[in-house]
Recover the amino acids of this structure.
């Protein structure tokens, strides 16, 4: 019964770890009840909402990095002002599987619409006007699964006209959806520096390695060349 409710109406609920995370917990409940050692998947699935400002410092091949992680909820955004100085680049995560979901703090606002508004506001502000942005279209695995049961055009009617484009029509449904969201963010971009888009799945460690390598090399190149582009 619980599994059926999660499948049919899970996206209407605010669940720690999301529907996929809760379903994973149920699937492994018997193992958790015993004496178990967490696996890599257990750790990756145990998501926690980011609150406050979390700063992490590390080195890769002798190159120091500082990553500042901030919560995206409306109540968290006032804390961002403390993070606006000495920024090399901004990584903006958009959970594209949430295209048919409402905000936790406002059940009248679509999460993707809110994300687009925030993207426009950030890229247009004087603090970030000339800072490179990296757009991560994240949770691509959940997006791929959801497209089958919740057509994108039912939430964004303009998607139907978008996929009639000759070049877009050749793509598979998943790539069409990603291209559609990339276009939406591009249309709302207010910065002067360019931005790049990466389709990501945070729990796919191998694909994340590829993306992070590309991002790291771009940042190092930008720093060494002193250029605005990357």
């Amino acid at each position: 019964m619980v599994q059926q409710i999660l499948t049919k109406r899970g996206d209407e609920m605010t669940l720690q770890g999301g529907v996929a995370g809760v379903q994973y917990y149920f699937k492994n409940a018997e193992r958790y009840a015993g004496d178990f050692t967490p696996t890599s998947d257990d750790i990756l699935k145990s998501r926690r909402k980011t609150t406050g400002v979390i700063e992490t410092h590390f080195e890769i091949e002798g190159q120091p990095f500082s990553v500042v992680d901030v919560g995206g909820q409306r109540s968290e955004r006032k804390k961002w002002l403390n993070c606006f100085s000495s920024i090399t680049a901004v990584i903006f995560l958009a959970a594209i599987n949430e295209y048919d979901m409402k905000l936790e703090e406002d059940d009248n606002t679509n999460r993707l619409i809110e994300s687009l508004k925030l993207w426009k506001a950030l890229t247009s502000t004087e603090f970030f006007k000339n800072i490179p942005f990296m757009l991560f279209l994240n949770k691509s695995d959940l997006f791929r699964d959801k497209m089958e049961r919740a057509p994108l055009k039912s939430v964004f009617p303009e998607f139907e006209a978008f996929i009639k484009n000759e070049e877009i029509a050749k793509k598979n449904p998943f790539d069409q959806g990603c291209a559609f969201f990339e276009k939406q963010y591009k249309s709302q971009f207010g910065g002067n520096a360019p931005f790049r888009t990466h389709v990501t799945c945070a729990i796919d460690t191998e694909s994340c390695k590829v993306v992070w390598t590309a991002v790291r090399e771009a940042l190092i190149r930008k720093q060494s060349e002193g250029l605005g582009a990357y």
Observations:
- The domain at 87-225 is CATH 3.40.50.300 (Rossmann fold).
- The mean pLDDT is 79.
- Residues 205-225 form the longest helix (21 residues).
